[in-house]
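Batch job 17 of 40 flagged for manual review because the log was empty.
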Amino acid sequence: MNTERVSNHIVSWLKEYAEKANVTGFVVGVSGGIDSAVTSMLCAKTGLQTLCVEMPIHQAESQVTRAQDHIDTLKSQFKNVSSTKIDLTSTFETFKDANQQEQNSPKLDLALANTRARLRMSSLYYLAGLNGLLVAGTGNKIEDFGVGFYTKYGDGGVDLSPIADLLKSEVFELAKHLHVIDSIQNAAPTDGLFGDSRTDEDQIGASYDELEWAMKMQDTGKIHTEFSGRELEVFTIYSRLNRINQHKMNPIPVCEISSKLK
């Protein structure tokens, strides 16, 4: 990948979109991960207002430190970058206390993880509304269009997606080109939604490199019977997630009412 050309293209695209939308810039949730680091860096390079937001909810200290270090680096390089921190831990706990009747559900952990993401989305849109900004999404291609590894109306609730046509490996290439801090480049990808040390690979059951391979195989028309061993396992994981998460990737279905019924 020609990282220089891709970087310049995304920056130009962001700037043009913001100007057409008549807004002054972007708000980005910064988690300490590679995707939000690259997205915020690209937004900063537009020269438009870029508000970086930390939104910890029982967050691991390592994630908080990486996010802070990245924001400090951005602010030292770009005068158009500002930051704020909204600690949503108490808000999250209040929500949990208000829903005590559901505490025995086997799906509780996942529901609460998605709630964290949705609280953050609401916070980003609050700040966007106050400041006349667009919410810049941080999802990459394998997450957004491959396995649907994001929260609907959480981190999937955005105004525009600057890196959603880049595979995870390409995001890492771009991070190196943009000189994102080493601690973020070297960190194992994690959504940080469960309050523990589990990585994305732990949750999905396959690495991003494996998922990119499976995505390519499916796109070229390969089927399960053509694989065995670990390849079959990965292809099965990818195919299943791609299938069950189509509701995230496709437009909201509308029940059309014919003129005859009306």
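Reviewer: the log was empty due to a logging misconfiguration, but the result itself is present. The chain has one domain: 3-198. Unflagging and moving on to job 18.
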